[in-house]
Amino acid sequence: QVQLVESGGGLVQAGGSLRLSCAASGSIFSINAMGWYRQAPGKQRELVATVSSGGSTGYADSVKGRFTISRDYAKNTVYLQMNSLKPEDTAVYYCRVTDNYHTDYWGQGTQVTVSS
């Protein structure tokens, strides 16, 4: 079994910051990519940011310049630093981890609410 434990969500005013964390543990053989997705009410889940095993990062256009993804290889943990938050960033944020067998694991989600 693989467990992904997310933390760091909450309520923040527009312009504020939050840092999400996602720690992977259990029978995960070897992590390849790690990433964050989000799903707002009534909308499809969308990619926010990813980081590959080699450290290459990618971002949705809507968060470029405001969000930063990073990972701690030793701790199997991925972070998402979110700055200059906007009300439209309000969503449930999910961590996704892909191992070298191309198996995906998802976290339980953490709520981020940005008030105007």
How would you characterize this protein structure?
Helix content is 0%, strand content 58%. It has strands at residues 2-7, 10-13, 18-26, 31-39, 46-51, 57-59, 67-72, 77-82, 91-99, 104-106, 110-115. Strands 2, 4, 5, 6, 9, 10 and 11 form a seven-stranded mixed beta sheet that branches. Strands 1-3-8-7 form a four-stranded antiparallel beta sheet, with no helix packed on it. Strand 9 and strand 10 form a beta hairpin.
Distance between the termini: 40 Å
The portion of residues forming beta strands comes to: over 45%
Number-wise, the strands total 11
Cα gyration radius (Å): 14 Å
Main sheet, how many strands, which sense, barrel?
7 strands, mixed
Class by helix and strand content?
mainly beta
Q: Count the helices. How many? A: 0
Helix % is under 10%
Order of helices and strands: EEEEEEEEEEE
Low-confidence residue ranges: none
Shape: globular
Instruction: Name the average pLDDT.
Output: 95
Please outline the helices and strands:
Layout: E1 2-7, E2 10-13, E3 18-26, E4 31-39, E5 46-51, E6 57-59, E7 67-72, E8 77-82, E9 91-99, E10 104-106, E11 110-115
Parallel strand pairs: 2-11
Antiparallel strand pairs: 1-3, 3-8, 4-5, 4-9, 5-6, 7-8, 9-10, 9-11
Explain briefly what this protein structure is.
It contains no helices and eleven strands.
